[in-house]
Design goal:
The structure is a single chain. The chain contains five helices and three strands. The protein is about 75% helix and about 5% strand. The protein is mostly helical and about 170 residues long. The chain has a three-stranded parallel beta sheet.
Length: about 170
């Protein structure tokens, strides 16, 4: 019996040693992201693009309203004339819908394009801090959608180190 217990202890010793070496860290990516200096320039670019899209949408709405008003005020137009006006109004509606969809896609693509370098920079800094300190896992605690429900109090918050690495 003593021999089996000794074998069990010897077998479990490396596992216990490995378990002690696993270092876990947490990071608040949203906090770091909000502190990035490039963010204000990106917000300006996105706002400018959004204003441009909004102006074009307003121009299309104004043109649509004008055509609709012309259609309603011209009772003496022949059937062929009315059909032509209806066709123009329908084409304007289609242009409006298409522009709305394309405008949102453009804005979304621009946002992705502009944010990708910042996200990459943050990820690289987190990886560098994790590698320097030999962390086995670094969990982002800023997202409510995180699968992490609990982490040990011994987990280290590396947010300040990542900010330092980024020069923030």
């Amino acid at each position: 019996m003593l021999k089996k217990l000794l074998i069990l202890c010897i077998a479990l010793a490396p596992l216990a040693a490995m378990a002690q070496e696993v270092k876990i860290a947490t990071v608040n990516v949203q906090e770091i992201f909000a502190a990035m200096p490039e963010l204000s320039g990106i917000e300006t670019q996105l706002s400018t693009k959004q204003d441009e899209i909004r102006k074009n949408i307003q121009a299309l709405q104004d043109e649509y309203s004008k055509k609709l008003e012309e259609f309603e005020k011209s009772p003496a137009v022949s059937d062929a004339g009315k059909q032509d006006q209806q066709k123009q109004i329908i084409q304007l509606e289609e242009r409006y819908q298409t522009y709305m969809q394309n405008g949102q896609q453009e804005l979304s693509q621009l946002q992705q394009k502009l944010l990708e370098p910042i996200n990459r920079k943050i990820f690289d800094a987190i990886k560098a801090v994790g590698d320097e300190n030999n962390y086995a896992f670094v969990y982002d605690i800023s997202s409510m959608q995180s699968p992490i429900v609990y982490f040990t109090p011994s987990a280290v918050d590396i947010t300040p180190q990542v900010k330092t690495k980024l020069g923030l």
